[in-house]
Amino acid sequence: MNERKVIRNAMIYDGYGNPARPGDLVLEGGFIAETVYDGHADVSGATDVYDAQGRAAAPGFIDAHAHSDATLLAAPEAFGKVSQGITTEINGNCGHSLFPVTKANRDYAEDSCRACGVKLNWDSLKGYQAALEARDPALRTYFFCGHNTLCAAYPNDIEAQAAALEAMIRDGAPGLSTGLLYAPGRDEPEEHLLKLADVLKKTGGMYVTHLRSEGRRLEEALEEAIRYAKAGAGRLHISHLKTAGKANRGKLGHVLEMIHEAQRQGMQVSADRYPYVRSQTSLSVILPGEYDSMRDVEIQQKLAGDEAECRRLVEALREDSERVSNTLLTATTLEDYKEFCGIQLGTIAEKRGTTPEAEAIEILKRDAARAMGAFAGMSGDNLKRILEEPYVCCGTDENARPADDSLGAGHPRGFGSMPLFLNMVAEECGMSEAVRRVTSLPAEIFGLKGCGGLRKGNYADITIFDEKELGSKADFLHPHLPATGILRVYRGGRVRYEA
Ligand SMILES: [Zn+2]
């Protein structure tokens, strides 16, 4: 199909950091056929002519860190992603991919699919990709091989893990992702990780990692990551770079120095970040350390039957009263607390004449299994400083979701990351640089061919946006509101979103 489409009167950001220039774009058969900067493109024979009226046209945005592995099969229209201008996603992150699947990890893989109403009928990257393509997803996708999945598929068999990783990379995975904070990967000995690094060295694959610690042992975790990447192909990408917890905020300067030093030594080191300082997870993580290993359902059962323990916990939480008070309740099934969703525990306590600690425990003993919170553990100043680094691209850290909450409600970053990231970077470095960070930069980092730049022969992945309107109204209470200012999104020449 050689369909011809034209975008007229656009301010073209080419994605390579050059200043925007007025021009037309000609799309043919899903690819960019021509960029016309002087005069106008010939519209004869075009099946679609879009007048951008002087608004911006950029390469489709690339989400450098997504978790859509299962949801994209359930909601291939990926509304949360395309509505913020995203056309390409990198998945298989934090050590978790939906392949390889063996007898040893089939139950677990099936469970994570079933949660989205998806039936698992593959065992390899190729099989998974075929299942996804059959759903005609709105996004172009790439999948890392997840270390935790690999360990679960071939327990205690490093030779088999290495062979499977090599096969997946030969089949198109850009490399290995680890999530060394999580089991079973966190318990693997160093020599096993070095063995997998050998595979990366041999294949040129990238090492992408959710660091073992993002807080107390952040520097040690980064050092470890640099060591593995160095033993591999010298390509390191750090997922959601941050300093977690107030006590660790001062570490950023040294962390950036360590990255710069590795770059000076010739390594390719990059990172991604979402433009938010709150993380959203089970409200139960507010509890003291001894509850870390318990499942939320168990926590609820324990607290419901133990008044003395509840009183002890209220006392224990007083140790960091500011943190408890600042935590937002974002979801609960309790009817009498529904009106407080999106509100800080401190404010809820004021309204109910209690204390934030008592509110936290009251909610947990009745609804720990479902209650969610948003925690202000990251620093706004550090976020700004991280975004100033030229090798930092945007990763939503979210899965593709439909407009409704049939797959659950997500973090607002699943709908608003790109516009907020662009605005924050543009404020410091200009819009051309901001666009580069979400287009050609991630394409270069991950070695993606044919995307990230508006030039002849590349995929016709194009996002039309209004710079003045660019923004997000999504918040923890209304996380699924579409971004503002994103007007039209093409993927492979096909319109996948229109405001
Ligand atoms: Zn992660």
Write the layout of secondary structure elements.
Elements: E1 4-12, E2 21-28, E3 31-36, E4 48-51, E5 56-59, E6 61-63, H1 71-74, H2 79-82, E7 86-91, H3 106-114, H4 125-133, E8 140-143, E9 145-146, H5 147-153, H6 158-170, E10 175-179, H7 190-203, E11 206-210, H8 218-231, E12 235-238, H9 252-264, E13 268-273, E14 279-282, H10 296-304, H11 307-317, H12 321-326, E15 328-331, E16 343-344, H13 345-352, H14 356-367, E17 372-375, H15 380-387, E18 392-394, H16 413-429, H17 431-437, H18 440-446, E19 462-465, E20 486-491, E21 494-498
Parallel strand pairs: 1-4, 1-5, 6-7, 7-8, 9-10, 10-11, 11-12, 12-13, 13-18
Antiparallel strand pairs: 1-2, 2-3, 5-19, 14-17, 15-16, 15-17, 19-20, 20-21
Helix pairs in contact: 6-7, 7-8, 8-9, 10-14, 11-14, 13-14, 16-17
This protein binds zinc ion.
Question: What report would you give on this structure?
Answer:
This protein has helices spanning about 70-75, 80, 105-115, 125-135, 145-155, 160-170, 190-205, 220-230, 250-265, 295-305, 305-315, 320-325, 345-350, 355-365, 380-385, 415-430, 430-435, 440-445, and strands at about 5-10, 20-30, 30-35, 50, 55-60, 60-65, 85-90, 140-145, 145, 175-180, 205-210, 235-240, 270-275, 280, 330, 345, 370-375, 390-395, 460-465, 485-490, 495-499. By secondary structure, it is an alpha/beta fold. It folds into two domains: about 60-275 and about 390-450, Alpha-Beta Barrel (TIM Barrel); about 280-375, no CATH class. The strands form four sheets. Strands 1, 2, 3, 4, 5, 19, 20 and 21 form an eight-stranded mixed beta sheet that branches. It is globular. The longest helix is centred in the C-terminal third of the chain and has 17 residues, at about 415-430. The model has no long low-confidence stretch (mean pLDDT about 95). The structure holds zinc ion (ZN). Zinc ion binds near residues 94, 179, 210 and 239.
